[in-house]
Specification:
single chain; alpha+beta; TBP-like; two-stranded antiparallel sheet; 5 helices; globular; disordered N terminus
């Protein structure tokens, strides 16, 4: 589990490898988990929402090698539509473009395009990752997020995107037993623990909810929920709680 905590972001979104998620064709897979995560926070008076995130990942393999002109044409339309181009890399045989967009509803969107030669084949792999995140929990319970994500899925022509959902909150509970709290949240989510990492100021639990289709296999066991609690330094600082499905994809 230590390895998950250190490299999970790179493992999921790297252009050279990622954790395969089973059952990713059942979309949308973000709505129920996001709502349940948010309700855990909203119904606990000691917790305050920090942020929530939805990530989509779609990979396509083309039979022919792409050119730099092909790649530039693919990503150019987003800059014309008001997205800010924060980085563009077209040196060598691996290309990357990163765009961001801050909407009037307070939501921030991030869009990354990758293109690189497919190993052992005369073709190209195109990878698109889309992310939307915010700090306002009220939009989760509205149709704003769902409509936006569905619009982007269509716009990006994502046929069967792999979906990752997570939420982070600050917990100012007086209880010091973070292991017990992690187990309680897993129970509330209808899951069973499959792996755990316990340290003095940090715990990370992997669990499985059979009602949620996407899952990852770890040591031959299915998992689709991660709960991580990190103790913050300072008097009354509380703890930071991160919950994700099927895994957490940011540092925690």
């Amino acid at each position: 589990m230590v390895a998950w905590r250190l490299v999970v972001f790179g493992l999921v979104f790297s252009i050279v490898g990622y954790a395969h998620v089973q059952g990713a064709n059942d979309v949308p897979t973000y709505q129920q988990p996001l709502n349940e995560f948010y309700q855990l926070v909203e119904n606990n008076e000691d917790m305050k929402l920090n942020e929530w995130r939805i990530r989509l990942r779609d990979e396509r393999v083309q039979a022919r090698l792409s050119t730099e002109e092909d790649f530039m044409e693919e990503v150019a339309s987003f800059e014309r539509n008001g997205w800010e181009n924060t980085s563009l890399l077209t040196e060598g045989s691996e290309w990357k473009a990163h765009f961001t967009y801050v909407g009037p509803n307070g939501l921030t969107e991030s869009l990354q395009f990758f293109a690189y030669p497919t190993p052992n084949q005369n073709g190209s792999t195109h990878l698109v990752t889309y992310e939307v995140f915010g700090t306002n929990g009220s939009v989760i319970e509205s149709n704003i997020v769902g409509e936006l994500v569905e619009e982007r899925i269509q716009e990006l022509q994502m046929d069967s995107p792999t979906t990752y959902v997570q939420i982070q909150a600050n917990d100012r509970s007086s209880s010091k037993d973070i292991e017990k709290r992690a187990k309680t949240w897993i129970q509330h989510l209808g899951a069973e623990t499959v792996e755990a990492l316990n340290e003095e100021l940090f715990v990370s639990y992997s669990a499985y909810n059979p009602d949620w289709t996407p899952y990852i296999e770890t040591n031959g066991t299915r998992m689709n929920i991660q709960v991580a609690i990190r103790g913050n330094q300072g008097l009354g600082a509380g703890t930071t709680v991160t919950i994700g499905t099927p895994i957490i994809t940011t540092e925690y």
